[in-house]
Amino acid sequence: MHEYTSTARVWGLTCPGFPEEVSRARRWTRDILRGSPLAEDAELIVSELSANAILHTASGRDSGSFHLALAVSAQVIALSVTDGGGAGTAPTAEHQDQNAEHGRGLGMVSAIAHRVVVHKSDGGHTVTAELFTGTHAGGHPC
C-alpha cells in the first residue's frame, strides 16, 4: 500500500434532538458495523453519548441537533458525538453511589472504550470513544 493511502472509512449523521433519534443513532451504527465483533459495544456507546447530548445540552431543546461521526480502520473504531452546546461544564465521568439514578453513563463508556476524549469548541462538545481492534486476546479487526 502506498504510504499516503488511507484505508479508513468515515460516516456522518446529523439527528434532530428528539429522544427517538437515539434509536436511529443505534440502528445507524449497527448497520455500518454489521459483522464486527465490536458492533454491540459501539452501539451501546453511541446510544449513551447521543442520549447525553439530548438530555444535557442545547441539542435537546427547541430546534437542536447532534452530530455523529463513525470512523473505521483496521486498527480502531472511533465514535464521536457532537452536541449543541449550552451546558455549563464539559462532560465528565462521575463516580456515583449505588443509589444514584443518573450520572453513570460516561463512566460506562469509559469502561467499555479503550480511550475517551472530550473536545470543547465554540458550538459545544465532542466526545470521542475509541475501540481498538485486535488489542485483546483473540481480537479480530473489523
From TrEMBL:
Residues 19-129 form the Histidine kinase/HSP90-like ATPase domain. Keywords: ATP-binding, Kinase, Nucleotide-binding, Serine/threonine-protein kinase, Transferase. InterPro entries: Anti-sigma-factor_SerPK, HATPase_C_sf, HATPase_dom. It holds the Pfam family HATPase_c_2. It comes from the Bacteria. The keyword Kinase applies. GO terms for molecular function: ATP binding. This is ATP-binding protein.
